[in-house]
Amino acid sequence: MDATPPESKPGPVQLCIGECKPELRTRSSQLYSFVMPSVLGLSPSRGPESGGTKVTIMGENLGAGSSVTVLFGNQTCEFYGSGMLLRCWAD
Q1: Residue 77 neighbours by CB distance under 10 Å
Q2: Is 14 helix (H, G, I), strand (E, B) or coil?
Q3: Hey, which CATH number is domain 35-91, 3.30.420.40, 2.30.40.10, 1.10.357.10, 2.60.40.10?
């Protein structure tokens, strides 16, 4: 299975099963666009190694995608927020 989003312009998504022959593909009726998340800042810029610091991540499109993960090193940071602001506690 292959799903190819259009470049950066909103448009339908084409879905192919196996080869992308006309009889094996379909197009969505809704328009989708792909956005890249970007981090613009972190606050605070540092904290104790023992963890427990509440970290605010500012950016754009931070909630893009179906699976968003925040990591500090290899430690997952549970978070809440929106597309422009995430807050989590570093362990």
Answers
A1: 19
A2: strand
A3: 2.60.40.10
